């Protein structure tokens, strides 16, 4: 039974468009050379490594690269 979590719906809507755009670019570049799950992993990595609106990179914050 699907359950809607109202706190995370905004996050999904916010990241859907850039994630889909990156996935389509990766899919167009690589085609059928790798499986779709690997393309999705690459897209997620690209989104996490890009700087946000405040100039911070989430992946670097996770690994304490910023003081």
Write a structural description.
The protein is mostly helical and 67 residues long. The protein has one domain (6-62). The protein has helices at 6-30, 36-49, 58-62. The N and C termini lie far apart (43 Å).
Structural class: mainly alpha
What oligomeric state is this?
Answer: single chain
Work out the radius of gyration.
14 Å
Q: Span between N and C termini?
A: 43 Å
Helix content: 55-70%
Output mean pLDDT.
78
Biggest pleated-sheet summary = none
Number of domains: 1
Beta-strand content? under 5%
Number of helices: 3
Q: H/E order of the elements?
A: HHH
Shape: globular
- Low-pLDDT parts are none
Number of strands: 0
Summarize the structure.
The chain has one domain. It contains 3 helices and no strands.
Q: What distinguishing features does this structure have?
A:
single chain, 67 residues, mainly alpha
Give the topology, please:
Layout: H1 6-30, H2 36-49, H3 58-62
Helix pairs in contact: 1-2
């Amino acid at each position: 039974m699907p359950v809607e979590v109202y706190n995370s719906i905004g996050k999904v809507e916010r990241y859907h468009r850039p994630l889909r755009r990156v996935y389509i670019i990766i899919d167009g570049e690589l085609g059928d050379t790798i499986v779709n799950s690997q393309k999705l992993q690459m897209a997620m990595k690209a989104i996490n490594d890009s700087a946000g609106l405040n100039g911070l990179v989430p992946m670097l914050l996770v690994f304490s690269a910023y003081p």
